[in-house]
What we know:
Blueprint: H1 13-16, H2 30-46, H3 53-63, H4 65-71, H5 75-86, H6 116-132, H7 139-147, H8 153-160, H9 165-173
Helix pairs in contact: 2-3, 3-5, 3-8, 6-7, 7-9
Amino acid sequence: MRPRIPRQQAREPQKQQGIHRSDGDAGLSAELAGAVAGARRRVVRDGDRQIDTAHLLHSLLESDCEVRAVLGEGPRIARLLGYLVQRSIGYGLRWQGSVEDSGGLPVVTAAAGFSPLAAGCMEYAHERAARNGSGPARGTDLLAAIVADPQARAVEVLRRAGIDPGELLTRLESPSSR
């Protein structure tokens, strides 16, 4: 008996959708590399044009326990995840078809598939890790970059969830969190 579903060749969906793995992924901690890969999968699944800071924040929460610890546990994380899930079915629909760019960070063209703001955040995460001498860029380095720009989509989501991005950045910049 023949299967009713035709076989499909194994393909790399990121390349088909115009989202390529970037050389910027080198020098990332395992957790951060996993978060970036998760953001790429989310973009492909949702049919978005580029990885934005909200995609990155969502994936960081799912894959990086250090980021979750900085944000706090319990209802705060649940509320934040709820807003991030809603982004593709609710208020986030207004983001589709637009490019996330606050103009606050220089555009980094080497990070194909990222919004200009997300690409700048990835670059900042690398620089922050190098400055701190902490080895490869970690999720907390990327989170610090994301919350530093008040125009980031992820910052809007954090605010809606009742998390103060300024307070979060202060915690991330304290010597104990590096």
